[in-house]
Amino acid sequence: EDGLADRWMTQLAPSVQRSRTVRRVRNGLLGRGAVSLAVQNCRRRSGHGNGDEEWDQIWMQPCSDSKHVWHKGPNGDKEELLLLDRVEEWLGRRRPTIVGKEGAAIAAESGTKTLADILYAAANENKEDDDDSDINAGSTAGSTANLKDGWIEGIGEGRSDEDNLSAYFRFSEGADEDNSWASDGMKDLSKHENKCIVHGSEALTLEATTTSVDEGESGKVSLLYDLVYNETCDRDRIAGIVLEAKRGTSLDVGILFDSQHESRQRCSIELWFHVPSQNQVHDEIVLMRRSVSSLGGDLSKLCCAEENDDKLWELVLLPTAQLQFRSSGGTILTTGDAQDYTIAAAAVVDQNVDEPKNDGLVSWESENGYGGWNHVCLILSSKSQRNITDCAVKIIMKGVIAASAVASIELPDVNQEQHKDISFVDEAMENTALLFGLGAVPNFRMTEIRVWSCERSLDDIKLMMYEYLAAAEIKKKFKVKIRNRVKTRTPGTLLKLSQPDRAKVNRLPPMASSNARKPTVGLSAESNNNADFHPSFGN
Q: What pLDDT was estimated at residue 507?
């Protein structure tokens, strides 16, 4: 049995083999004893004795180290990250999916994306032809709507997801010593450069990230920092970050659009958040919310968790480890089951695992300091819906759909007939805002906020949720000094040459004749070309 167990162990994932040398708890999932016990159980079920190994033909086949899937595994200091979601992949008998930058590059070169690019280019060409026809025929109501003041063209029409990036925050201002972010806000790394306003900055700090997301590199990639809530924050205090989402801007996506703005009918909002131990969370925490501002330019009061009368939608964390989506139309969508969490938490204590494995439940920070980080992506899509107020909602936790439904999102104090008037809706949506981290508890963290004007696929979310986006790469600026060109003379005029200063010429010593020049000692006539070199070149 020992020999067979050893043969199995050599083909397991490196993170399983080396659980003793790695601090992370998840690496202790399997060990040699567990493999040996599995071998015995397999033998017992198959009815074979200890001397008969024909039942194990798959594992009897030798595995070449050079071709083994773990030859370039994560412990080999390579940039290949592997997605392990099958038992065969953990045991080295199935090639896992490559994620991260390399996986994204492979996906980009696939035939599927090539075909999509071809179809997109053809669609754009037809669209340009239609636009030319509209211009020649005269302005229409639809074209007039597209040219409204303040509306940004091309939102949601990008060829790739990164072309549809509406906002991106890594809180890199934490590297600055002057803490100017408290008054100036956070920098949006996307091309739209939205302004992120911080309210209640005395209750917030920026600290180096503790997530598993790529932290970046100084001078090359914007560094990743966490927005951390300190001991002075509580539910009734105004604290959080605000993004203005005026009508027609890059953040005005997902809801309450008609067919004239079909490209704006979808959006994805994702972030990482960390919650402390469960006994510290007694009230719900608003992870993200979109509200209508009835106070004009004053958005600070929207950063209070209890100010939800003017909300359009919100995603909150419940004390039961569930996430809940609520809309202004009365839709409530909840992930997981609170009763399942109690059972899962008890199993965690027995198995010494840092987090429950139930879908739809968040991970709390355990007593040993592990766990607590969660990734969530909220997708809103009003495309192909019958009513302008209907919207398909998906809550995706760590790359898995935890809940989905069609929600009703309505403007506060507005009836159905008014919603049919798109001009009225546009005016009512002129002052809205995206809010993050309301009513948080001390030691709550969040980071890596991304807003997209498209519906992200599960594969794309899994591929890049641990990676920084291309927008985080720092573009170096090169200064090129161009010499002034010589002025050209006018045709027909004589070129006037500057005359030498005769006084200076008379003071110069007379040049020796060619016969009086002495050759350099030690050099032949052929090598005398180097005689005039400066001595420093001879070193």
A: 53
> pLDDT at residue 429 above 70?
yes
- Which of 374, 360, 410, 404 has the alpha carbon at shortest distance from 390? 410
End-to-end CA distance of the chain: 70
- DSSP letters along 113-171, please? HHHHHHHHHHHHHHHHHHHHHHHHH---HHHHHHT-TTPPTTTT--SSTGGGEEEEE--
Q: Has residue 197 got a pLDDT over 60? A: yes
pLDDT in the model for residue 174: 93
Please report, for residues 292, 294, 302, 437, 439, the alpha-carbon distance to residue 308 in angstroms, rounded to integers and kept in the order given. Answer: 10, 12, 8, 14, 12
Nearest to 299 by CA among 378, 196, 230: 196
* Closest CA relative to residue 376, chosen from 314, 421, 431, 304: 314
- CA distance to 51, 101, 122, 124, 161, per residue, from 116 (Å): 57, 20, 10, 12, 13
Task: Kindly state the helix (H) or strand (E) to which residue 226 belongs, with its residue range.
Answer: strand 225-229
What pLDDT, in 10s, does the model give residues 46-105? Answer: 555 554 444 455 455 555 545 444 445 444 444 556 666 666 666 655 666 666 566 666
- Mean pLDDT, rounded, for 320-346: 78
CA distance linking residue 455 with residue 70, whole number of Å: 34
DSSP string of 70-128, one letter each residue: GGG-GGGT-S-EEE--SHHHHTTSSPPEEEHHHHHHHHHTSHHHHHHHHHHHHHHHHHH
Residue 52 makes CB contacts below 8 A (sequence gap 6+) with none
CA distance 183 to 512: 74
Q: Are 19 and 75 in contact (CB under 8 A)?
A: no
Structure tokens at 415: 């009836």
| Prediction pTM value | 0.64
The alpha carbon dihedral of 153, 156, 158, 162 has a sign of positive
Partnered with residue 436 across adjacent β-strands are: 241, 288
Strands (E), 361-399: 373-381, 390-397
